[in-house]
Amino acid sequence: MSTGVDVSDEVTSSFQKFKLGQEPYKLRYFIYVIQDKKTVVIEKQGDRSKTYDDFVEDLPENESRYGLIDVEFKTDDGRPTSKIVFISWNPDTAPIRSKMLYSGSKEALKSALVGVGTHVNATDHSELDFEESILPAVKKFT
Question: 99 and 122 in contact (C-beta within 8 Å)?
Fold first, then answer.
């Protein structure tokens, strides 16, 4: 389902620098919002010192958002590594029109973020739990 929502050029260009770790996008995460029901733009950025918990705190309780975070973890054999994870935050408590807009526009953003291998859909905070949801998703690809 296409909603006609576009992805801003800033989202695409900042992502390219983010995945390469280039300044000024040596960050931990981005949170994206659909502005005026037309364009996906950057709402917030978390600097490198921020954690996954900070990212979750920056997601609004009752509003949909998209997130992109560089998750650092240890593989099962103890090697430190990281993966970029795309999270679609579409809480059950969000307005129905917003949920439909974010669900229908997700593919446009995902196609602009070339190279993200892990995608997580979350509708409540239990699905954002690092140990139960995020870590198993990123470990599938290590």
Answer: no
